[in-house]
Write a structure and sequence with these properties.
This protein is α+β, with helices and mostly antiparallel strands. It folds into 4 domains: 6-112, no CATH class; 116-203, no CATH class; 207-425, no CATH class; 427-471, no CATH class. 15% of the residues lie in helices and 30% in strands. It has 8 helices and 27 strands. The chain has helices at residues 6-10, 44-53, 65-68, 134-144, 372-378, 405-415, 432-439, 446-458; strands at 25-27, 39-41, 69-70, 78-84, 88-95, 106-112, 116-118, 130-131, 152-155, 158-161, 164-165, 173-177, 184-187, 198-203, 207-211, 215-218, 222-225, 231-237, 247-256, 259-269, 272-277, 282-284, 287-288, 298-304, 310-316, 322-328, 333-339. The chain has a 7-stranded antiparallel beta sheet with strand order 17-16-15-27-26-25-24, with helices on one face. Strands 1, 2, 3, 4, 5 and 6 form a 6-stranded mixed beta sheet that branches. α7 (432-439) crosses α8. The two termini are 46 Å apart. Residues 1-23 and 414-425 have low confidence and may be disordered.
């Protein structure tokens, strides 16, 4: 049985949830200063949403603005709350201080990003998703309001946790009692075994996307933006096709002024390579086609909007694994979305649903979002990688990705790239207020912020209508 001191227990997991917005937010234990386990720090916009969810209206009232937006080295960094007896929220704050500090009166507010699946009774492994760590199991317990991870008993001067086991006769990892589904436990035993009446709980982080400026939402809720110009590996998944073929997805980004777009996507599975560009042109193994037939996936095509200017291409690799490629021919942007349980060993810019994080090509470096250029460059398509695009263009490895528009101007003029039928040096001016208003239809969060940034960058108010931004 694992032994923890009371002090260590405070830093272990999301011990309780004071409020859950669609299972999105949970409060950490008091007197801590960070988000633990599968709980992630929230931004100011998300903090606003949390405040609204618990009916703390003063946070969003400009009359009290300076009272709840603080810069303090002595309170938790980011979003935090003050909770009185009875779990009554008496204050929600956002601390701009980069360091902050734990305080016995305050609890950091963190976001839930994981999805969960339950295995069959009397099994001992995750056949959908991946086995959770102790911290992730505690975070799940927090989301559903389970009290098992808060329960301890003392024996011979040592504290033991009710939820933590080391038993060869119970499922390994996180599991629940079928008759008491709020009873959540974690078994440290390295093997465990199937046991009647118990279900393993597995984490399933099942969606990742990119598009716009471009912005990336990786498996596990990792958001970042990257304005470079080159060919990169979006995803590579072993044995993910209908007949267990490897699936690869490359994207070609193009620099425009001070921002970039995804100009084209190439998808490989089995013997087939499909290319889709921002004008909706469809290539199969180098030949222009209207539709695609393959042994490695099923394929469909759909037009959206009154002018049919948005084209949706859907790849179905079986067992719920989907790739959607959307060509917005009006804005000349390509968007992608991957969903489903792509297998262990999946790598690339979007990461893996089994082991989420910003893992560089070497597989061992889990990078910080501040290192986004270095992270993306590690996934630049190299001469040793399978080349999916029929036509090559500058830069090609070992030349690095380009960030200066002047360096790609000759290329842009050569291929005569236009934005909405105009030269690239033409742009409507959109104010911040106009962008915020246009994107207000979308939910609070990073994707809504991406919407505002893209509308201002492109001068295109209609871009806010794209569902990529979260509505």
């Amino acid at each position: 049985m694992a032994i923890l001191t009371p002090q260590a227990l405070l830093l272990s997991v999301c011990l309780y949830a004071t409020s859950v917005v669609g299972k999105r937010y949970a409060a950490m234990e008091k007197n801590t200063n960070e988000c633990i386990g599968a709980c992630k720090a929230v931004n100011y916009i998300q903090c606003q949403e949390y405040a609204a969810s618990v009916s703390f209206d003063k946070f969003n009232d400009e009359t009290y603005y300076e009272d709840y937006l603080v810069t303090s080295p002595s309170t938790p960094k980011g979003c935090y709350t003050e909770i009185s007896n009875g779990n009554i929220v008496v204050g929600v704050y956002f601390n701009d201080d980069d360091t902050g500090a734990s305080d016995p009166d305050f609890s950091p507010i963190c976001a839930r990003v994981d999805e969960y699946s339950f295995m069959a009774d009397n099994t001992n492994e995750c056949t959908s998703g991946s086995t959770m760590s102790y911290n992730a199991c505690g975070s799940y317990a927090a989301v559903i309001g389970s009290g098992t991870f808060k329960g301890y008993y003392k024996e011979d001067g040592t504290y033991y946790q009710y939820a933590r086991k080391d038993d060869p006769d119970l499922p390994k990892g996180c599991y629940r009692d079928i008759d008491e589904p709020d009873e959540i436990y974690f078994n440290d035993h390295n093997k465990g075994s199937a046991a009647a009446g118990y279900e393993p709980i597995c984490v399933r982080i099942s969606s990742a996307s990119c598009g716009g400026d471009p912005h990336f939402s990786g498996f596990g809720g990792y958001f970042f933006s990257w304005q470079g110009h080159c060919d990169v590996i979006l995803s590579s998944s072993p044995k993910a096709g209908l007949n267990k073929e490897d699936v690869m997805v490359h994207v070609r980004t193009t620099r425009r002024r001070k921002w970039s777009i995804i100009e084209a996507v190439a998808v490989s599975a089995g013997d087939d390579v499909v290319e889709i560009d921002n004008n909706g042109k469809l290539l199969l193994n180098g030949s222009k086609v209207k539709t695609v037939t393959s042994k490695s996936f099923t394929f469909s095509k759909e037009f959206l909007g009154s002018g049919k200017l948005i084209i949706i291409y859907l790849f179905n690799f079986g067992d719920g694994k989907l790739l959607e490629v959307k060509a917005n021919t009006r804005s000349n942007m390509v968007f992608t979305n991957m969903s489903g349980d792509f297998p262990k060993g999946s790598v690339g810019l979007l990461g893996s649903p089994v082991e989420p994080g910003l893992f560089a090509r070497n597989g061992t470096t889990n990078m910080h979002v501040d290192d986004v250029d270095e992270f993306v460059e590690s996934w630049q398509v190299r001469d040793t990688d399978t080349q999916l695009f029929q036509n090559t263009r500058t830069p090609q490895y070992p030349n690095k990705c380009v960030y200066d528009t002047d360096e790609v101007r000759d290329y842009l003029e050569e291929v005569n790239v236009y934005l909405r039928g105009r030269r690239l040096d033409e742009q409507d001016i959109v104010t911040l207020e106009q962008a915020v208003s246009a994107c207000a239809k979308h939910k609070f969060g990073p994707l809504r912020t991406f919407c505002e940034e893209d509308v201002m960058a492109t001068g295109d108010l209609e871009l806010a209508d794209d569902a990529f931004y979260g509505s």
